[in-house]
């Protein structure tokens, strides 16, 4: 993610996690041909990627399956927005000068 944010790679890091149930995996079959697969998208990883790529279009309604408590998710979104603001402010500051002594 840091390399992507710095422009040292053009490919964003993958953040999805795939699980396969009832069959061996990985094998020669693509995951779309498996009987049961589950894709997990960590909200924090997705939000960080969108934040650093400048595509912070994520909203509280963009997750089709909701398991966690909505208030907790909303609080996490606000914390990431604050983190993003701090990061932007940090980018604008001149480099720190070494203190004599």
From TrEMBL:
InterPro entries: Interferon_reg_factor-3, SMAD-like_dom_sf, SMAD_FHA_dom_sf. One of its GO terms (biological process) is immune system process. Residues 1-53 form the Interferon regulatory factor-3 domain. GO terms for molecular function: DNA-binding transcription factor activity, RNA polymerase II-specific; RNA polymerase II cis-regulatory region sequence-specific DNA binding. One of its GO terms (cellular component) is nucleus. This is IRF5 factor.
């Amino acid at each position: 993610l840091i390399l992507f944010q710095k422009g040292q790679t053009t490919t964003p890091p993958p953040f999805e996690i795939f699980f396969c149930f009832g069959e061996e995996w990985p094998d020669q079959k693509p995951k779309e041909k498996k009987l049961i697969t589950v894709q997990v998208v960590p909200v924090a990883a997705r939000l960080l990627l969108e934040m650093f790529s400048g595509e912070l279009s994520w909203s509280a309604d963009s997750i089709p399956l909701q398991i966690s408590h909505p208030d907790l998710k909303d609080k996490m979104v606000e914390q990431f927005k604050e983190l993003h603001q701090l990061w932007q402010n940090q980018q604008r500051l001149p480099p720190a000068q070494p203190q004599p002594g």
